[in-house]
């Protein structure tokens, strides 16, 4: 297996994570700040090329019911443009509750109502996207290993 890149797509920020060459672990990459889908596609294409990525996994923000809402449709549009630009396979991973899980990981005090929680949340916005991308990638790698028996 070679490197897999995961994207937590957002209108202004993209969380990114990349696998090791064996496809066992996911490491967060710096969060990208973008102004448009076109810019997001260009930046992710550059990173995928620079890192010799063979597959891209995009978190699909389904509604809790499992249906596609407007964000999922926008994410699919981004993924389609990304596949065309890179020539790489783009796969989806259900990302329901991933951002909430990432926020809890980064800010455990928020559940207790700590006075520091607000300050930590403000500083952790980009971090949440990075951790969410790593969680998306870890889930996809686990599922892929299970499906292929690797």
Distance between the termini: 10 Å
DSSP helical segment count: 5
CATH architecture: 2-Layer Sandwich
Give me the secondary-structure category: alpha/beta
The side-by-side strand order for the widest beta sheet comes to 3-2-1-4-5
Tally of distinct domains: 1
Instruction: Estimate the strand proportion.
Output: 15-25%
Could you name the CATH class? Alpha Beta
At CATH level 3, the topology is Nucleotidyltransferase, domain 5
> How many strands, what sense, and barrel or not for the largest sheet?
5 strands, mixed
Described by the principal axes of the CA atoms, the overall outline is globular
Question: Mind telling me the C-alpha Rg?
Answer: 15 Å
Whole-number mean pLDDT: 86
* Fraction of residues in helix: 40-55%
Query: Which residue ranges are poorly predicted, with pLDDT under 50 across at least 5 consecutive positions?
Result: none
Name the CATH superfamily classification. Answer: YqgF/RNase H-like domain
| Helix and strand pattern | EEEHEHEHHH
Describe the model.
It is a single chain. By secondary structure, the chain is an alpha/beta fold. It has one domain (4-148): YqgF/RNase H-like domain (Nucleotidyltransferase, domain 5), CATH 3.30.420. It is built from five helices and five strands; from the N terminus they run E-E-E-H-E-H-E-H-H-H. Strands 3-2-1-4-5 form a five-stranded mixed beta sheet, sandwiched between helices. Helix 2 (70-86) links the parallel strand 4 (55-60) and strand 5 (90-94). Helix 1 packs across helix 2 and helix 3 (98-106) crosses helix 5 (125-148). It is globular.
